[in-house]
Amino acid sequence: MSLSYLIRRIFFLLVVIWAASTITFFIPRLSARNPIRERFAELARNGGFSPKDMEKIVAAYNEKFGLDKPLAQQYMDYISGLARGDLGVSLNKFPKTVWELISEALPWTIGLLFMATIISFVVGNLMGALGSWPRSPAWIKSLTTPVILMQGLYPPLLGLLLLFFVAFRLKLFPLGGAYTVGTVPQFTLKFILDVAVHQVLPAISLILASVGGWALGMRGMGITIQGEDYVNFAEHKGLTPSTIFRSYYVRNALLPQITGLALAFGSIVTSGILIEQLYGLPGLGSILGDAIRSNDFMVIYGIALFVVGGVAIMTLLVDIINPFLDPRIRYASR
Question: Fewer CB atoms < 10 Å away: N or C end of the chain?
Fold first, then answer.
């Protein structure tokens, strides 16, 4: 890989992040809602503020957060803050910063979405490869069709069905939450197992809805390479079926799937946001949902930019790794 190509890819990554930050900045501003006014109006309804006092407080906070400035000036302040790595302060959960909210929720999101993506990737590609392999048993091939049909299910809908039938009716798993109510979080085996049990249904919702897509893609790639010369040559050499399947069949069919893995993290995040809210998990999805309801600009900006940046970085890493996985891939210097 040439240095000029790497520089161009990094520049393109920065452009993507800038475009995403610009779009996410202006979309919430299209609403006429003022998050500070709504927050203090709620407090006033509960007592403690008179309307006159509230107006003074709202004006002071508008000035503090720069919401009284022209929109162009707010945008320049926002972009300059991003350049310094400053995502700002939450308007609804002041004085917490956006980075603090993300750091608190990120372990829960990574634990759920990362594991669900990896498991669905491995299981789906294995089932797709076995389903297209001519020497696979008939019962294995028959499993591929229902798995592929599962990709038509919307993950939150599947999560709702599992929540009702498995958790509510059969009582096999908790109804929601990250861990049992009243439990003190601590790094012990008992607490880890409690968290794992609460993550089972959300993870199954995401895995079942995405494993079919991987199986379908891998099955199509497997059928495509069945007549390739290197597969026929391996068979004529007298290699064992397991060696041909592992080293010649799966390895070559898996390359396009690895490229799609980076994009899968972005698509599964959108489903994970709703799944986390459905099961009451304290991840990025729940924080983003609260921020949207309260029109907390800075938190919306921070999480959206964090997700877009993560997907862009994953795509860049895949581009860098691809030549090592497939020596036939070469990136031109121009």
Answer: C
